[in-house]
Design brief:
Blueprint: E1 9-22, E2 30-32, E3 38-45, E4 50-57, E5 60-66, E6 74-75, E7 80-85, E8 90-95, H1 99-136, H2 139-146, H3 157-243, H4 250-359
Helix pairs in contact: 3-4
Length: 360
Amino acid sequence: MFPHHREREQPIFSTRAHVFQIDPTTKRNWIPASKHAVNVSFFFDSNRNVYRIISVGGTKAIINCIVTPSMTFTKTSQKFGQWADSRANTVYGLGFATEQQLHQFSDKFKEVKDAARLAREKSQDKELANTALSIAAPQDLSDDLQSPPVMCVNGPEDKLFRSQSADITLSSEKERIKKMLSEGSICEMNLEAELFTLQDSNSKLVAALHEANANVEQWKKQLLAYQGETERLREQVADLEAHGGHGPSDLLKDELTQSLEELEALLKAKDEEIHILQSKKSDYHEIERDRDQAIHRLREVEMRNSELERRIQNTEQNLSNSLGDRDRIDTELQRAIEILDIKIFDLNDLRQSLVKLMDK
């Protein structure tokens, strides 16, 4: 009665970009649709065999575009591309952080467009085959199918009412379980999208952390060199102050003092950068904790979906048993009605015989 596994949209590719839309008045200027870079993802709907580009900013959908074979993604610069959506009567633009991200999105757009074209061709072939079968069907058979024979049952009306009540109860139970399964699937889809985003952020943070660690080691070496140079300059300044006029001129002393101050400012700036990198490590641990929590919630939703599928199977089994019981009761009731008709007929014959005897 119900499918055991409900198909839904699946994410197949995701990247981050700044989203723009063409100005509907001038058709020339770009209007930013997001304040910051947001996730732009390709989704596939296996039920309708449709590919979509979706981007959500805050609580609203910035992009909700169905990919068609006629669409074309155009690279207008090294980090910017655009395509037109005739359904929404607009043009979308994406600004990427790197040229590699632009190439990846362009390649995925072409791949999805080709897949959408193949899906449309298969759908058209299927429609043509169904049309050919309907034309070739005989007219007399179609008339027979349109007018099925009507079955009449001579039974008590309360039995019919009980059957209709059982059908209504089973239908309401099916609708309730359908709603529960739909809510669980939507929650699972949101958690998968959140997990996908966290994994993307995690990989970027790991790469940034490795790069930061390498820079920290290099800056430590530079700090040691700067500290040694600072000590040497301090010694030179002390010698100049001790010897007075026997050393270099006052101009050279001022230059050395200025160099010393610049090196101390540089040392302070490097210390601040090291402090910032160390604070980023704590942000990385927080992202790791959020990802673990998302994985835990996803597992809980999967377990709940499994429980819902089990309940659907039990409901289907109960429905099948109820239908079997109802058919068996209808058969027994029909047999009882036939026996009752025979008894009534016998009583009628007996009555007529008694009337004849009384007349004699």
